[in-house]
Amino acid sequence: MTAPNAPATGAGRWSELFSGPQLATVLILAGGVALYAMNLYFTAALMPSIVDEIGGDRYYAWVATGFLMAAVIASMLVSRILGSWGAATAYLTAFLVFAAGAAINALSPTMELLIAGRVVQGFGGGLLAGLGYAVIRTALPERLWARAAGLVSAMWGVGTLIGPASGGVFAELGAWRWAYVLLLVVAVVLALLTRRALPRGAGAAPDRTPLPVVSLVLLTLAAAAFSLSSTVSPGVPTALALGVGVLLLAAFLVIEAKGPRSVLPKLTYRRGGSLKWVYLTVAALCAGVMTENFIPLFGQQLGGLSPLIAGLLGAALSIGWVAAQVVSVGLAAPGARRAVRVAPVLLTGGLLTYGLLQADAASGPRVILWALALFVAGTGIGLAFPHLSVAAMRSTEEAAEGAKAAAALNTTQLITYAVCAAIAGTLIRIGEGSMVDSARWMAIGIAVLTALGAVTAVLATRDRA
């Protein structure tokens, strides 16, 4: 659901964007982002059915972690691929890689192979998410940039709403493999449109900036260590894996701050700056989002819900996010500051309430309370997000650096999703033997992480001389 801010105005008309030569281009840009966004929630609704058929429940969290870590790495390559290959070839590559991952998923006889497919799919999806914004400038006339950016941004909301519902339908029909076949077909159709609709040849000069390889390796190993903690025996092995993950994350931050190259802007690590607090607040809020990967499982196991309804329950948090964001974007500076500061409190309170309400054979009214608690949690995210993007841009007076700071919000989200998906899987494993305990451990444990955002939000929004 990440969506960078789009320009507020534009001379072009919506009818012009959806007519003539622009139509195919818009379908590619919006369709690529929609595929990525929908896939985040699509698979969450399918996972209980997948585990029932091929097993591998201990690797549940790896399905999300593998996808997201591959997307993080791909996001670092977008400008390089686009500059070297041009829009058409870059998009064609992204769609075909995504389709290959979907094909592997559809044919997977084991969870291990499914995870491999998700890694491939995540790499293609990460390229699609980044290209959706990067190609607007070269593929469309300037008068349509604002409209196109708004449409691409809206695809995150579409993915939030359609992903759980469509995944739930396929799970309901016992046809989870066909869900990935559908993704494959859509990706191939969009790939066929690409060569005709997008400009060929290289675009701007390729980005020659060296990749922060050491940082990316440390980050990937940290995510792997956290994921490993959900598969080893409880007790000392789990604690050891978690400890290694924490140490690798610490090493990542040290290398980021002191090394010549970094994943996040160097401004992040400037003493006295606000940007690091902005990113940590984003991370705290995004930690709550990762509960959505497991809520359909709890809905089916504890609430007796059908796969479709369980998938929609998983979307309750995102629905709250979208609804609150619509209201929050119009807040002036004082209200925006209050919104950012209250956001982690709402998110934490919603998750704690959801966790404490868990019970076996939950009644209809209790399930409704789950949905309401998740909706409240989501409103906390939506209240803050528009203003955190602005805070990132205002963290420096240099326009170019401010743009980089805002763009890195997406990287921060992806990193948090990958790490917290793994941590959530470990929390669930701690409650092994009792689904109620697993649900409580996951919700309350993640709430502890989101509660830290109450402190970072104050630091991110305080006045500076």
Structure description:
It is a single chain. With 465 residues, the protein is mainly alpha-helical. Helices cover 77% and strands 0% of the residues. The chain has 20 helices and no strands. It has helices at 14-17, 22-54, 60-75, 78-85, 87-107, 111-134, 136-139, 145-172, 176-197, 213-228, 236-258, 275-289, 295-303, 307-314, 316-328, 333-356, 364-393, 399-430, 435-451, 453-461. Helix 3 packs parallel to helix 6, helix 3 packs antiparallel against helix 10 and helix 4 (78-85) packs across helix 5 (87-107). It starts with 13 loop residues before the first helix and ends with a helix.
Question: Briefly, what is this?
Answer:
The protein is an all-alpha fold. 77% of the residues lie in helices and 0% in strands.
- Give the count of structural domains: 3
CATH architecture of the largest domain: Up-down Bundle
Estimate the global geometry from the Cα principal axes: globular
Mean pLDDT: 85
Radius of gyration from CA coordinates? 21 Å
Order of helices and strands: HHHHHHHHHHHHHHHHHHHH
Determine and state the CATH class of the largest domain: Mainly Alpha
Q: What is the count of DSSP helices, taking H or I runs of 4+ residues?
A: 20
Helix content: over 70%
User: How many strands in all?
Assistant: 0
CATH topology of the largest domain: Growth Hormone, Chain: A
For the terminal residues, how far apart are their CA atoms? Answer: 34 Å
Unreliable residue stretches: 1-10
Could you give a short account of the major beta sheet?
Answer: none
Indicate the structural class. mainly alpha
* Residue fraction in strands: under 5%
> In CATH, what is the homologous superfamily of the largest domain?
MFS general substrate transporter like domains
